[in-house]
Each structure stands twice: as C-alpha cells, then as structure tokens.
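FAQ: What does the model actually see?

It sees only this:
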Amino acid sequence: MADDEAPVIRGNIPGSFPRSVLEERHPALIDRVRRSFPYGAEQQRALDALLNEIDGGDITPLPEEAHDHGRWAEWGYPHHGRRWLDVPFLWAESFFHRRLLEAVSYFGPGPWRGLDPFAPVKHAELRSEGVDLLLVALHDLGALPAEERLRALLLTSLPGNRADPGFETVSGGGPGECRATLVVDEVTAARDLLEPGPEGPGTVSVIAGHSGRELIADLAVIDHLLVHGLADRVVLHVKPAPHHVSDAVLADVMHGVRRLSFGPGRTAGIGERLWEAIGTDRLRLSAHPFFCAPLTFAEMPTDLRNELAGCTVSLLKGDLNYRRLVGDRLWPATTPFAPLAAHFPSPVVALRLLGSDVVTGLPAGTVNRLTATEDDWRISGAHAVVQTAGG
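And it is asked to produce this:
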C-alpha cells in the first residue's frame, strides 16, 4: 500500500483514540505536572495558557528565545495557527510535550532548569511492588539456559508504563511473563538476528521506550547480550529531555542501574556488570536530539542513520518508536510489517504493546477475531507484538 492510501492519523475524528489523548489525557497531564512540584507563578501562568490553548485554541509556536525555536519553526510552519485536532497526531503529541517543558522552564535560565516534571511518578514506580517483583523475577531467570532466558527477558521487557488519563502506570507480570497476548511472535527470528555472524559479535543498538520497570527489563536484556557474546558493544539510545510522559532519559538509566545493583541475588550482578560496562564503553549511552523530534525514522538525520547502519541489529522499544518506524498512519492491520520497516538502516526487532491505532503485520484471522471480540484491541495494551525486519 502506498503512503497516500493510508491516511495520516489526526485527532479530528469524534470518538477516536487520538482525540481522547488531545482532549482528555493532555489536560490531565498538565494537572498532574502542576501538582508534581510547587511551580512558581510564572510557570503556573504558562501552564494555564497551554491548557487554554489545547482546549479549542489555535497552535502557537515556541517563543523566539527558545533554544530550539528555529528547528520547531521549520517542523511546525504548516501547523501553527491551526487547531490541535487538525494536525498530524504524531506532531501534535511531540509539540505538546515540548510546550509543556517550555511552560515549566525546563530549558530556562532559572532554578527550574533541568527538573524533570515527570520525576515524581518515575521515582514512585521504581519504589513500587511491581519493580520489586521484577527484580526477584530477574534473579529467577538467571537459572534458565541462555537461549530460554533470552526469550524470557525479551518478553519481560514488553510490559511498560502507559500513561492513562489519571497518569497511572500499568506493569507486567512475573518471570518471562507478559500479561498481554502476543499476537505476533517473532522472538525466534529476533534471536537469529542477534546471533553473531562469521566476523563475531558487533554493536547492538537499543532504542529505549519507557523508564521504570520497562527500562530495568531492557537493561537486563542488554546485560544478557554482553555476557553471552551476542554483542561486543551495546548503544542505548534515550531521550535527551523528558518526552511523552515516562520516556527514558539518562537519569532514568542511572536510577535503573542502581535499582538493579541493590536487587536480590543474581539481579545485583546485572547492575554491577552494567555499571562496569558503562565505565569501559561496552555500554554506551546516547541521547540524540532526533529522539525528541516530531519525525519518523525515515526522516532521521545522516549522523544517526550512519551510526545505526553500523549496528548488527537494533531493538526498538515501545509504541512511539513503532509509530515512527512504520509511519503514524491508519494502516490495515494486515499490512506487512517488513516492507514498512525496510528503510531502517539496520536489521530491526520491534517489541511493543499495542497502545495506539497503528498496527501492521497481523494475520488476517487474528485481526478478524480481535475485531469481532474487542472494540479497543488496538489501544488497550492487552496485546503485544515482537516483529523483525531485515537481516
């Protein structure tokens, strides 16, 4: 299917998921951020202005003094002055979060600079029973044979944090368990892609999604790749600034490694090895500005494309990265995944809970069954995919 045959997702359809995000979740997020810290009068006024704007107002650009005004002016010139509901949903989500950071002075010169507005909910999750259970599960998984353990680790990394209108989080189950139904299972193909070629193990990239529980599970996958010779080096790509509520930034990686280091038994060893791997550059941390841009992976800049082209495989985590990979369009769910991902510069493994309208690569029988039995199967987070392309 050609791109112009699959409509770009927007929020102007009554009752649609994008509309509920723009009209319900984003106002709720502003309220939650407002209550996360005792922001000053300037920040409170800016939050009020943003709330009024998304409640039926027209999109206004970033102030000219913003450090990235030029980039966002280029990305947003077709959309400024229009309703939030009428512009592409991928752009609207990204720009809303950038405007939210502007409102709380995240990039400003004053004392609020660099304060993650989502930090309280991230820290609460790290202290949660769900993460405690995950750390015990990772200890238990250490007793499995290596190949069986890799499958279990990949499935454990599927559940993540999904912000609902109340800004709560949803966690997954126990050892190797994903409470979501796996509707596309290409874990064996993923393992095959990760097997070293004749030249030995190379560099694997992991493009992170959420922080917290999901990131801790991702770190356990990275440790497995390094320990068992499936990668000579791993590059973990995170967001350069807080983005899309619970997406991982560098500080979240540090918190995750520390949490692992104080875990039970074999889990503590994961944290200790990762700490050492970061210090020896076997685990390199990267925060390219592209990952906060309102662009698809087909539009990534040359430097990032060249870096990813040098990787043996890339693990792509989460719903947003999936949308950026295949395009934020209303594809028929049976549209083959691999051709849509063929532009990516390395072989790719996508691990994702279904949490938006974008779905590809499902068998027709699965689509028919889900459509007949579940009204919101595309967005409920009750289903997951592990899909591969390239190689």
